[in-house]
Design brief:
alpha/beta; TIM Barrel; three-stranded antiparallel sheet; about 40% helix
Length: about 425
């Protein structure tokens, strides 16, 4: 009995110690930590001609705050509501230091998760906490990730035109600016202007502002575009192209096989996320490098593509997947399977989000390329410390944190337009909706 009693006493002591440790940890995450979150709020502004959502996390240390990007241009008001009504009360009085713990609990606090609205809201909080962490450490965020693996992020820029002459002028201007990688498009995504709209207009299906796109003319024009640009500008320039999921998987296979001879740097989003099962077939028919993931929300969409070596570049939108915390893990997974990064960097990412892209670009070993969209002068005024472009390379400052601030008075001078923001409907000739 003595032995059992001693064991029971030891177990009780261990349990008491564990309970005390758990209580101390809970105390640290719920309000008695040296640095607490006092408020989480969205800032809505439009200096870039896009509905930007920036999250500001304020702390118990006077003057110390962080900024994160939560921009979801097509549903910005839903994101702002999620931040204001849900993340703010959830995060208040919690430690601003335990980023992983806060991310995990905020992610599951809605019970249902993986949606773009909640992921963007969470990204704003997450990036802002990394910004705060860098400011407290007096280091740029890339130093917190292990320091630089390169001096800057090599970028690609967008060149387009309604015909070959306009496209030539656009490509030439990008080369003159120092870009070594250029994405080429005839017209808009899917080159909707290349086929007649007569039948579409006569049908009267949808609204007049809806656009029209048929795969046949698009595929033919895209092959001719690659042939023209490669012959005119030679092999020195790297060429990229975005299908934007607007053709069938079989048409995508046909197109990739046809342009293989022109050595694309990559073809982006050849099929929709719903068609991930086609990548094995696509891989068997073409050696063209594939970039995928702009519309991805959660790991279930990319893990098999990476571990199966079915893509070459992972192209997620960092705020769409929940911020820097999950993006670092994604980059580490991709590294082991020789998949490189190509984070989404369009105009509807705030300068805070672009800075987050580049801080990660600088630190990871498997960086591939960074999409670049230039900032307007008005955007640079609202966001002091914007990343800077030099000779095709994107740089961030060495200021502590993400290095980007916001002038809220100037931001308020750029309100959203009345149009709440929708992705423009695309249709086939008979009016059938086309998924982006």
């Amino acid at each position: 009995m003595g032995g059992l009693g001693a064991l029971a006493s030891a177990l009780a002591f261990t349990s008491a110690k564990e309970q005390a440790a758990a209580a101390e940890y809970e105390k640290a995450t719920r309000g008695d930590a040296p640095l607490k979150i006092t408020r989480v709020r969205p800032i809505l502004t439009n200096p870039q001609g896009q509905r930007l959502v920036v999250v500001k996390v304020e702390t118990s240390e006077p003057g110390l705050y962080g900024l994160g990007c939560a921009t979801y241009n097509q549903r910005p008001l839903a994101v702002a509501t999620a931040v204001e009504k849900y993340l703010d009360p959830f995060a208040r009085d919690r430690s601003a230091e335990n980023i992983e713990d806060l991310w995990q609990n905020a992610y599951t606090s809605s019970y249902w998760r993986n949606g773009p609205v909640l992921n963007n809201a969470l990204s704003g909080l997450d990036m802002a906490l990394w910004d705060i962490k860098g400011k407290r450490a007096n280091m740029p965020v890339y130093q917190l990730f292990g320091g630089k693996a390169r001096f800057a992020a090599d970028c690609y820029s967008h060149a387009s035109g309604r015909d070959h002459q306009q496209l030539d002028d656009s490509v030439a201007s990008k080369i003159e600016q120092g870009f070594r990688h250029v994405r080429i498009q005839l017209g808009s995504y899917g080159s909707s202007h290349l086929s007649s709209k007569a039948d579409f207009k006569e049908a009267g299906f949808g609204l007049p502002r809806d656009s029209h796109m048929d795969p046949g003319p698009y595929i033919k024009a895209t092959i001719a575009m690659f042939d023209h640009v490669r012959n005119k500008f030679g092999d020195e320039i790297e060429l990229l192209h975005d299908i934007h999921e607007r053709i069938s998987p079989m048409d995508a296979i046909r197109l990739l096989k046809a342009v293989e001879t022109y050595r694309p740097f990559f073809i982006e989003d050849p099929v929709a996320p719903e068609d991930n099962g086609w990548f094995k077939t696509l891989r068997q028919h073409s050696s063209v490098p594939i970039a995928m993931g702009e519309l991805f929300n959660n790991p279930h969409e990319w893990v098999e593509l990476i571990t199966g070596r079915l893509i070459d570049y992972i192209r997620v939108h960092l705020s769409q997947i929940g911020g820097l915390t999950p993006a670092r893990k994604l980059a580490a997974l991709a590294e082991w399977f020789h998949v490189k990064s190509a984070w989404h960097g369009p105009g509807d990412v705030s300068p805070v989000g672009h800075a987050a892209n580049v801080h990660l670009d600088l630190a990871i070993p498997n960086f591939g390329i960074q999409e670049y969209s230039p900032f307007r002068d008005s955007t640079r005024e609202v966001f002091p410390g914007c990343p800077t472009m030099t000779n095709g390379y994107l740089h961030v400052s060495d200021a502590p944190g993400l290095g980007v601030d916001i002038d809220e008075k100037l931001a308020a001078q750029h309100p959203y337009p009345d149009d709440p923001g929708f992705w423009k409907p695309i249709r086939r000739r008979d009016g059938t909706a086309v998924r982006p």
